[in-house]
């Protein structure tokens, strides 16, 4: 039975872990593949391809905003095969080059196939068994399967398959109202598909701050039919596609026919694929591998990182945890903890949404003192240029320390505008220091952040006259 110093399960963040500092070790990299591809979710079916579809979608949708500014553009139409092939022409090549490179690495053995633990140090993979002194579980997550009658009789797409459709459908039902539903609704609606969202909860992006979730739900409802408070009850084959049947709180049933159905009802960790009961590795009720602050599982010598143990399910969190595990594998006597404070996220829909820290509803539930400011994009010069009516920056701060507790943006470039606020929260900068300790370029859109900081009703905090107001 081949023995290794280290075995890493998962070729997403797990593959990035294996840099030149591990060249002195005999390493096994074990991977089952995502849709037959090497390199994990982010590269093949996640962050990267989705954003490569969002960019052309933004362009196709630009005619709506252009109209407000007196520019008449034709409504966008999408050359789907060209867009799809551009995206995967790049990505598939990166995936296969990464795989080839790993095969050529002398100290790394790539073992491809589903793996399961036999005992704490033995892993069954590709019809054989290996042993290793230490393991890293980087097995990620997968789409939550729909468990309703008829789900096995129709084709149900997930984010794993929807981006490789042969042709653009005329109609699509998206089930769910979270990140994936929001992003793909924008992509396919912009490309001319008649999209309907059916969501169980009463708002889209309901994990966001309540004002952001309400605004996003209103704006998306103006673009496409959004059916809220309805849960899926069954799926039926239908002429030319699928009949989606959902019911509301009064058990009234609604039917939606579509050529294509996209299941966007969440992702579950892949811990159940590893036979962890053969090891001492414990999992939470939600199936996440339990880790301590050093990313160590409950079994000696087994670390975990990324979606298999992180309920945030975000690539920048997986990347951070990868750096922590790298260090801790290399320096067992000088461990460093993971930092899970001020984790931001962004939803690349239209409008974009970005957030860091607590929502207002969380602060209320926690009974914390807070002050808030909501600054409309339309109140600053660049917002005038954009004729923006919908975007805002909402800040929540501690009235005692002047530090930010949460920041929430909805609108153009929210995913970029939020970065200085993430920095302030990560470094403990007060709102006052942040607003007045630096120049803000005039008349850039960042002035919406500056003005939101200045609008926070913090004691001893003088709001200076705004040149735009004069
Ligand atoms: C559509 C979509 C869009 C996203 N967009 C963003 C975004 O914009 N920003 C962001 O931060 N995050 C985004 N995410 C989330 C992000 O992709 C994940 O958080 C991240 O990729 C997780 O990385 P990982 O290394 O934990 O797992 P993965 O990259 O999923 O790697 C896990 C690997 O383990 C393998 N594996 C699983 N079980 C076994 C087994 N038993 N044996 C062998 N191998 C196994 C899998 O085949 C896979 O290759 C998105 C996700 C999706 C689905
Ligand atoms: N931009 C990003 O960072 C990005 C983009 C895509 C995905 N992701 C990651 O992937 C994860 C999964 O995304 P997701 O959107 O699938 O999950 P999610 O948890 O964000 O949303 C799931 C949605 O499905 C709804 N739902 C669940 N069961 C339902 C049912 N039976 N009928 C109708 N609606 C139902 C829920 O109400 C919720 O709105 C996210 O948690 C996120 O971390 C991140």
UniProtKB/TrEMBL annotation:
Domain FAD/NAD(P)-binding: 4-319
InterPro entries assigned to the protein according to its UniProt record, in alphabetical order: Class-I_Pyr_Nuc-Dis_Oxidored, FAD/NAD-bd_sf, FAD/NAD-binding_dom, FAD/NAD-linked_Rdtase_dimer_sf, Pyr_nuc-diS_OxRdtase, Pyr_nucl-diS_OxRdtase_dimer, Pyr_OxRdtase_I_AS
One of the Pfam families matching this protein, by short name: Pyr_redox_2
Cofactor(s), by name: FAD
Active site, UniProt feature: 442
Residue ranges of domain Pyridine nucleotide-disulphide oxidoreductase dimerisation in the record: 343-452
Cofactor remark from the record: Binds 1 FAD per subunit.
Stored Gene3D superfamilies: 3.30.390.30, FAD/NAD(P)-binding domain
Cystine residue pairs: 42-47
Similarity remark: Belongs to the class-I pyridine nucleotide-disulfide oxidoreductase family.
Name of the molecule in the record: Mycothione reductase
Organism: Enemella dayhoffiae
